[in-house]
């Protein structure tokens, strides 16, 4: 069993570890964990409730604790940090890459952070303070400073001898950077180039000076777009004077892409993407309150629209039965457009130059959808309720609401974007509020005009 | 202006290109496009409606057309393929990487595909048929076959001389693979290793034999998880006998991750992730029909629940005004849980071993939410409507619906997963149907029992 733990899936491992834990075989669990790479232990920790998490953490190898911390998501990291004292933490973070160190320590409260800082060696402290000097979510905050630089006038032969003397390259190095005497970046030489060109040529001869460098203040999401579009593995980061500051590697970019995707998906449901799958009940409940409060406001707004028509509703109860159909269809149609526009903005398809075209297109789809569904729903309702007049009313309301839904689905995210509000977060709620209010108002309003005795 | 086109954003470029197009400056546009890398032209094409897209395509350099096709998303690719004749296409696809070739040609209908195949040279045809032999969305369908292999007994010195003779490495090569005489993969040597170890050592001495290889039949989404977790740049793909077949590189994995994220986000709104942002109106309308049809079914189901209580509704019209609140809150609460569970399943946090824990946790949050919001909504309604009895009824219904919503939010995706239905696609609709039906039934049901005269 022991030998096979690495080949098991996370959940099979969790079963094994839990089995061993509950029968008190701590030594055995410790040996099991020693076999696993830190990223797998991190996943194991994230996959269990806090009580169990604590037990497993205490059985991990102290050598591995730093690497495990790097791999944990924010919520899980914080729950583990709460279990560690300063001394542990300083030991665990020794020699960590700058960006990872910044990530791990950002989970500490101020006093704990100051304590750890005070116990760190001067060089690590300096690197850390520099890294934390860059605003969160910018290129500076995700870059590493472990670059190897070359001068343009040396020969490849010299470079090769230098590297062989060095004996090791920083992780995920695929290129060395060429800087002039002012530390200005002037090009890069891929490892593949070093292995294939004539060794008598100079760095200047073989370097690639067409590659793009990343400004240190660029938003990380823009960095990810450049990596995606250009198929990069690493890219140099420069200051405003083109001086080389560090490099960003694809593994960090993959994390950025994943986090952004999580953020969008969780955000659409009004959830924080850092939310721990197994967070404590009270904490989770509290976190979900904001969105439910916002929705209660929206729901009461919709109710207050219906309330305007209470007299009509008391006269014709069938309206109450049917009044949820039009808002519901509007919400779905609008959300389809919204999803398309949010994706289009994220990929970079949509800008000022074509916003008009897109609005026209989605408005046309809204009108067409309005016609189709007005007809279908009216037929269904007339068959069901045997009342042609209600059929006319629901058809009219459906046409209005689906037309509005198409327009709202494209205009809401465009406007939010201008206002620097994230449409992936707030767009759905805003849209549904519009389609609910318009749907109820048009349906009950027309019913009041045309159906009341 | 010309010189600066590369530095403009996509939308500034689009404005420039459109300006030049509409004033008939075709030669100028052609020169502008020549300056741009293929991935930027692809983005430009995706960012405009079909008529304009056609004009721009006809001005692209035929040399670049193959690379542009590789970069286009499915819908845009298909719209461009429709503009090309067989001869064009054969010329454009010559020498393409196998996985890209398979991607481009998968947009053709059968007869066009056969025509292209017939005109391809024998080697390309063979490679293509092999690539298309692997099921879609598996490691085999995304791998490249351009690996460099080494034998374990040669020295690094020999390898270095061989590479320098070769003069070029395949794109995104970060490691060479070591195979025995039966073509069985036994390890890999990173480029960084080649540059730093003693050149007198043998491949056997310096190779890494601990890295994981990817089975050719593995689902691409699992491949992406392994790359993410292990921070890989490339990985070898093997058949069931561990024979080396090819390699997968991080740029393809980034595409897989992005597509999966798009698929989830668009899928939640009932949209296809291949949907072209600027697809023609009729095509778009047609595509959105399925989801609207499903929703009409769900909306009619909810109405039929209200219909059971028509007598109650005609007696107390206030119920009609308030009846949308309980379903709405249930939908939001349920969707929060749903998003958490879908994310947790995607990351690998959730399996049989902890499904129970998760169900208990979300059920508890549902109960707690139920208590909190029952109280708050009841107070709001009593203040608004001045009727304590309606307050009791809405509190009861809210408690029931939020409790059910928590359970449904965790159980629906778990069950769908067992049934091999994608919960990111169908989960939201199923959940909202449950919370609508339960919300309306409990609210109107209790009102009928307790409020009717």
Textual characterization of the structure:
The structure is a homodimer of 453-residue chains. Chain A is mostly helical. The first copy, chain A, has 3 domains: 2-135, MgtE N-terminal domain-like (MgtE N-terminal fold); 149-251, Roll (CBS-domain); 288-451, Tetracycline Repressor, domain 2. In chain A, 68% of the residues lie in helices and 6% in strands. In chain A, the strands form 2 sheets. The first copy, chain A, has a 3-stranded mixed β-sheet with strand order 1-2-3. A 3-stranded mixed β-sheet of chain A has the order 4-5-6. In chain A, strand 1, helix 12 and strand 2 (175-179) form a beta-alpha-beta unit. Chain A starts with 9 loop residues before the first helix and ends with a helix. The model of chain A has no long low-confidence stretch (mean pLDDT 89). Chains A and B meet through helix 1, helix 3, helix 12, helix 13 and helix 15 of A and helix 1, helix 3, helix 12, helix 13 and helix 15 of B.
Summary tags:
MgtE N-terminal fold; homodimer; mainly alpha; Tetracycline Repressor, domain 2; 453 residues; three-stranded mixed beta sheet; 6 strands
């Amino acid at each position: 069993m022991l030998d096979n733990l690495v080949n098991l899936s996370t959940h099979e491992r969790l079963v094994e570890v839990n089995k061993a834990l509950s029968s008190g075989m701590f030594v055995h669990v410790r040996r099991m964990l020693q076999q696993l790479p830190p990223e797998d232990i991190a996943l194991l920790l994230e996959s269990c409730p806090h009580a169990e998490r604590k037990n497993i953490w205490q059985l991990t190898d102290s050598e591995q604790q730093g690497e495990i911390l790097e791999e944990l998501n924010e919520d899980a990291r914080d729950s583990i940090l709460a279990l560690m004292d300063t001394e542990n933490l300083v030991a665990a973070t020794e020699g960590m890459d700058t960006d990872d160190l910044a990530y791990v320590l950002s989970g500490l409260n101020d006093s704990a952070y100051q304590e750890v800082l005070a116990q760190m060696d001067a060089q690590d402290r300096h690197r850390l303070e520099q890294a934390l000097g860059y605003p969160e979510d910018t290129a500076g905050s995700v870059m590493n400073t472990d670059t190897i630089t070359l001068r343009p006038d040396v020969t490849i032969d010299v470079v090769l001898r230098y590297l062989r003397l060095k004996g090791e390259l920083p992780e995920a190095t695929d290129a060395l950077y060429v800087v002039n005497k002012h530390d200005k970046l002037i090009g890069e030489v891929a490892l593949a180039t070093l292995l294939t060109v004539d060794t008598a040529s100079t760095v200047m001869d073989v370097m690639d000076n067409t590659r793009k460098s990343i400004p240190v203040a660029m938003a990380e999401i823009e960095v990810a777009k450049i990596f995606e579009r250009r198929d990069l593995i690493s890219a140099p980061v420069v200051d405003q004077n083109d001086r080389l500051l560090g490099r960003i590697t694809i593994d960090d970019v993959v994390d950025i892409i994943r986090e952004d995707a999580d953020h969008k998906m969780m955000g659409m449901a009004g959830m924080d993407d850092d939310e721990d799958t197994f967070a404590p009940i009270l904490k989770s409940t509290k976190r979900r309150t904001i969105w439910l409060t916002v929705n209660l406001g929206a729901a009461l707004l919709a109710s207050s629209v219906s309330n305007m028509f209470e007299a009509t509703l008391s006269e014709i109860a069938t309206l109450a039965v049917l009044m949820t159909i039009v808002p519901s269809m509007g919400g779905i149609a609008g959300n389809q457009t919204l999803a398309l526009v949010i994706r289009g903005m994220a990929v970079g398809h949509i800008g000022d130059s074509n916003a008009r075209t897109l609005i026209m297109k989605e408005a046309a789809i809204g009108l067409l959808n309005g016609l189709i569904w007005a007809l279908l729903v009216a037929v269904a309702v007339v068959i069901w309720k045997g009342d042609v007049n209600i059929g006319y009313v629901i058809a009219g309301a459906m046409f209005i609401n689906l037309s509005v839904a198409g327009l709202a689905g494209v205009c809401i995210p465009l406007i939010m974007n201008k206002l620097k509000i994230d449409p992936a977060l707030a767009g759905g709620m805003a849209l549904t509020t519009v389609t609910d209010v318009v749907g109820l108002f048009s349906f009950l309003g027309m019913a009041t005009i045309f159906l009341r005795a």
